[in-house]
Prior knowledge:
The complex is a heterodimer of chains A (442) and B (475).
Chain A: H1 12-15, H2 29-34, H3 41-52, H4 60-68, H5 74-78, H6 85-96, H7 104-116, H8 121-136, H9 139-147, H10 152-155, E1 172-173, E2 181-185, H11 191-194, H12 196-208, E3 211-215, H13 224-228, H14 232-247, E4 259-261, H15 264-271, H16 281-292, E5 294-296, H17 297-302, H18 304-315, E6 323-327, H19 331-334, H20 341-349, E7 353-356, H21 371-374, H22 376-393, E8 397-400, H23 403-416, E9 421-424, H24 425-434
Parallel strand pairs in A: 2-3, 2-4, 4-5, 6-7, 6-8, 8-9
Antiparallel strand pairs in A: 1-3
Helix pairs in contact in A: 12-24, 14-16, 22-23
Chain B: H1 3-13, E1 18-19, H2 22-25, E2 42-44, H3 49-61, E3 66-69, E4 86-89, E5 96-100, E6 105-109, H4 114-122, E7 126-127, H5 140-146, H6 153-156, E8 163-169, E9 175-178, H7 190-194, E10 203-210, E11 212-213, E12 217-225, H8 228-240, E13 247-252, H9 253-260, E14 274-282, H10 284-300, E15 305-308, H11 312-323, H12 325-328, E16 335-338, E17 341-342, H13 348-361, E18 367-370, E19 376-377, E20 379-383, H14 388-407, H15 426-429, H16 432-445, H17 459-467
Amino acid sequence: MDPRDPQQLVDYVGSLDCIHCGLCLNTCPTYRLTGVESSSPRGRIHMMRALAEGAIEADADYADELDFCLLCRNCETVCPSGVQFGHLMEHARGALEPRRDRTAFQRLGRRVGFDLLLRDRGALRFVAVVGRAAQRAGLVGLAARIAGPAGHGLRDAPSIPPASERTRLPVFTPALGARRGAVALLEGCVMPELLGATNRATVRVLAACGFDVHVSRQHVCCGSLHAHNGEPAGARALAVETIAAFDALVDEAGAPLPLVVNSAGCGSHLKELAHAVPGEPDHERRAQALSRRTLDLCEFLARGAGAEGLAALIANVRARDTVRVTWDDPCHLLHGQRIRREPRDILRRVPGVELVEMEAAESCCGSAGIYSLLRPDDATRILDPKLEALRATGASVLVTANPGCQLQWAAGIRRAGVGVRVLHVAEVIDEFVLSAASRPGA
Amino acid sequence: MDARVVEELRAILGHSGVLAERARRVTYESDGLAFARHVPELVILPRDTRETAAAMRILHTHGIPIVPRGAGTGLSGGATPVAGGVVIGTARMRDVLEIDAENRCARVQAGVVNVDLTHAAAEHGLFYAPDPSSQKACTIGGNVGENSGGPHCFRYGSTTRHVLGLVIVLPDGEVLDLSRPAVDAQGYDLVGLFVGSEGLFGIATEITVALLPVPPVTVTMLALFRDLDAACDAVSDLIAARLEPSAIEILDELTIEAVESSVLAAGYPKGVKAVMLVEAEGSEAEVAATVDAIEPLLVARGAFDVRRARDEAERARLWAGRKGAYGAMGRVAPDLYVCDAVVPRTKLRELVRQTIAICHARGLRIANVFHAGDGNLHPNIPYDRRNAEELRRVLEAGDEILKACIAAGGSLTGEHGVGLEKIGAMEWMFTGPDLDAQCRVRDAWDPLRRMNPGKLLPVHACRETRTRDPRGGTR
């Protein structure tokens, strides 16, 4: 590969799938925000093609438009031509990264983040300990002020829970009651440090539905953040680790267990994992096999044995009172995995839940992985209209199914002073079904 | 672009309203007519009439050409800055300013997306009738510029029938307010003149449109044919029988295949040679009578299956498939040339056959998807613009198709406009004096010819008028 060849900087052949019809424009959060063509999917593809054909340079403006994209993939849901925009963008970011003008500090930050933190539980734990101490001592506000505009992300960063909350999941949790099967669960890289409660609720729900839950001890990160943010080498290495870790979790007959994922971003990446190991037939084959047995928690609980387990649980529960709840589609669930009906069906079946639809539930909340940390002001501008939509629902609980979305909403709700709780689907079932039937196995 | 001009414009529009960087400008080099590209020197995005007027005064002072642009979904190159200059985009003018349900009209900014207006009106039981296939992206301002149509214009008429008033910024930055109620209009109908002027007269920044009551009953029928000729004949019969459905559309086999392999799969059966979508709207009795009269006509012409959409969801799917047909053709080739011509509706079969023959003779594929009820053909020719020889054959086929339509008593454009694409064809349709007259109308609005230069009117025709004494003879 010749790095000077502009055609290598983008997926040129993929970019030709766009026929310039414009049906993506109005669904793109950054286009709606700015009205700027180059901040739309059609415009970004146009730039990629122009770059490959030598009409523009891979300069700072081009890089900025790539960075501005949330990778929400809403455009893919509406594209009649079937453009794989997420893939085009990941490719373009990855190819551009080595040629980018980054300061030494930025480079160091990326290496620490992508090569150290997301690959090592010990390092993640260390950051959580230090981060929590800094948050409690009020040092974060100070650091944010010193960092200036770039510090907004620090100030809005999620509050790190106490050590008692930051525990790993057990490697094995047995099914409760009638056993319906066994699953593997993706514990996630930052989940144990930031959203351990969501993970524990997920395990309780799966066990209560009749499934043994296996968790990989050594697995850390699936690499989705790497793939989205121009780090294909890291994504590749983590894909290989992920394949090995979950191929090792097998049932009595030695067949690999289905992998349940409670983070839509990771699930979406795992379902397309072969993209991360291009040109390696053996890994591609194993990645595809893993993709086929990967299920989002919402999917798992809405179909087959999972749905039966949930139905059996719900049958025992009477609601005392009704809570108005609204659902916000995680982009990588709706647009990445095309899962729309399942979470709504689940929520409607939960006793005591009144589900109301929120305007623009299908558009991005601005979390977008680490986007809200890298571009906090843009992330806030994306979320603001959705906060209004949330107010209009009158809901007291907002439900979603992705850690980034949970944290982004929680931060936005705190800022706006709206009295709404943010829960993961698993937490809704945990609270409205399991707790109601006197929580087992907690 | 002169740095001082950029500075002056930034002072009015703010930093984010002026795009000077090449990487960003390059995305404005074309609309849906992909082979014609020209990178603008600058792109500006005003937020309202005041900003547009202030910016246009500056551009007037410096004598800089102006190209208006909505969402860039046009298919005739109308928004392509062939003569350089500044593109003025309306994408930041997206407010529905007022819905006056009692008077059944709405006042919107030019950049409001067509479907957003329809959604806003729906809350009041009203709708905006013109519905171009690009309605999920295209803007009301762009619709005004091109006098856009859409499937339902068969019954309701194209954009010009629905525009009640305009606020226009003239080329020198003066604001012309023509937003009085239509009944009050005196003198020339300048609003009527402006609609369809393709950006040559000025920029409409605010538009008052009529809204219609949502009909109580809508029935959408899908008729399947084994033969495209038969479908065309059925349309001619429907028209002759004086039936009044609200839309009659035909999709051919290649189009059906493309749509059905896309996210917009509508449930059109694969393997049929043509499907016809017919919609009837009105009171229950009216719709029942229309549908009952239509069905036997279709069957008599060989429709082997006539279905009705069972619910709103199916109806929406059938239409989404039709309206996404252009985009779905991206599965066939990187680019698509969408011809746009109108023929007498008694000659549909003959002309559709000719379009196919013309393309096949040049080794080109063709997909026909069209507003059959209006006689508005859209032969779609897939191509790859990187192949110059193929592009030449595509353009040649397009010319032949247009000539055949004109010879049959049709016209150059149904709804896409002349723009850049058909500027040469204007001379097949109009005589020298016709074109002179049109140039003089243009000069009344824009004597310096800075608005959208190189579009609609052939340049040499205009040069001739310039040297001709308006009273006769030569200067």
